[in-house]
Amino acid sequence: MAVRVRFAPSPTGLLHLGGLRTAFFNYMFARRHGGAFILRIEDTDRQRLVPGAVQGILDTLSWAGIAPDEGPGLTNNNNNSKASSGPYVQSERLPLYARRSAELLAKGGAYRCFCDKERLATLRSQAQALGVPTSYDGHCRALSPDEAASRADAGEAHTIRLAVPRVGDGTGAAEAAQGLQAQAPSTVVHDAVYGPVRTSHAVVEDAVLVKSDGFPTYHFANVVDDHAMGISHVLRGEEWLSSTPKHLLLYQAFGWEPPVFAHLPLLLNPNRTKLSKRQNDLFALALGDRGFLPAAVTNFVGLLGWGPPDDTEVFATPNDMAKVFSLDRVQRAGAVVDMDKLCWLNRRHMLDPTLDTDPYLDTHLVPILRNAIAKLGDAGVG
Predict the structure, then answer these.
(1) Which of 28, 46, 347, 353 has the greatest number of CB atoms lying within 10 Å of its CB?
(2) 94-107 and 218-228 helices cross at what angle (nearest 10)?
(3) What are the tens digits of pLDDT across the range 235-267?
(4) Catalytic residue among 107, 117, 274, 277, which?
(5) Order of strands across the sheet that contains 195-200
């Protein structure tokens, strides 16, 4: 099987340390197996878009030395890659999502939902009053396909929801495909890091797949694009593990073979709370502005949740680390972001004699040092 992996960020701001870690793990896996590393921009949440963010992502990956083989504005640089996988920006792929949503409706894997904001707000209020998780009650699932199609053709606003197999609802095809008993439908994620994780359909919502504006949600576009681009392995943060049953149900409804899933451990603060994406000092390029070398930063993030087969901690280049990378050494426990460790690695990389001929020294580090010296002078330090 040809290895094809993707890093699929949303263009909502600068690339954080956690995003760089996800990108680097995908890069290493692709390089280790002679595969393709793809950048795909997931911009279907139109309200959160930040102008210039796509170029910022490309600049960050280039700075880190892990430029993608395929992606927006890039030529195909990998002979093992599909040349026809683009476009690589989701908002440019809307016709594909429209075709696939119509196909899924015809297969019975989804249904149209005409519930308005008021009704959905009432459901949320009722759930909060009862102290239970908010979940759609399947009200529009009782509509016949003909009635739903007629209302949609008349211009009535609606979304498209996933038809999660339920007990006795007549959608037993997905259950049968998994070898499940009708009394207790569930889905098992066979994760390369966390092992088998079974989730009862009782806690899987009929998620919205296509919004009323015609744009797909993350869940739908993610699956459709991964299939269309021939993605073989999905390496992403552990926070997406709970969404994976929905994704597997979509693969089953379409009759597609799912990729291998590998969820990466959370990044933690030293006090073991979850690392926030709002910590401005941990944006990748901001670390560069503070004098951290790109090779040191990639070396650092490569060790967040993964360990080499020996005691090696310093890797001169991203490709050196990729040569020994494997999923079986990715850990399940959260990885602590230790800035002292990053500083230590940065010092080790600065001692690399090849840095003397690296143009990064003149273009980035020298200006930083000059600025620091100027500040010391302003402070009256001789």
Answers:
(1) 28
(2) 100
(3) 999 999 999 999 999 999 999 999 999 999 999
(4) 277
(5) 195-200, 186-191, 260-264, 233-237
